[in-house]
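Q: I'm building a small set of examples for a reading group on sequence design. Run inverse folding on the following structure and report the sequence directly after it, with nothing in between.
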């Protein structure tokens, strides 16, 4: 499969105002929606909210949101999107909300432009 770029840029939030507003007003809800649409547990992004508090309580700093990173890498690999683990880590750390919005737009685009598969069964033979 040929590697392609993301269909929208990281900061192209205005390309899809519904995703932009959803992410702006309730990013945790958008993140849960993206995880669900990608086939993961809808509660997975809650790890990003709860992980820093739990790990900090144990004395371990956590700066990479695990759910955002794993879903982003998964989407990139599933659809053959150009990128690297380093860019995914940087995006997940420093632009997490924009990253969830970009992933939401990507999944909407992929669903809308999914090739139709037609399965035809042979007709009955008449004697």
């Amino acid at each position: 499969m040929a590697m392609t770029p993301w269909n929208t840029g990281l900061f192209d939030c205005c390309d899809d105002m519904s995703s932009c507003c959803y992410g702006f007003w309730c990013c945790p809800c958008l993140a849960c929606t993206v995880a669900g649409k990608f086939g993961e547990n809808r509660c997975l992004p809650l790890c990003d909210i709860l992980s820093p508090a739990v790990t900090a309580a144990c004395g371990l700093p956590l700066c990479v949101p695990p759910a955002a990173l794993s879903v982003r890498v998964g989407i990139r690999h599933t659809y053959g999107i150009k990128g690297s683990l380093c860019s995914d880590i940087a995006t997940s750390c420093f632009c997490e909300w924009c990253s969830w919005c970009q992933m939401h737009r990507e999944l909407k685009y992929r669903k809308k432009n999914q090739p139709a598969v037609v399965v035809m069964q042979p007709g009955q033979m008449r004697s």
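The chain has six helices and no strands.
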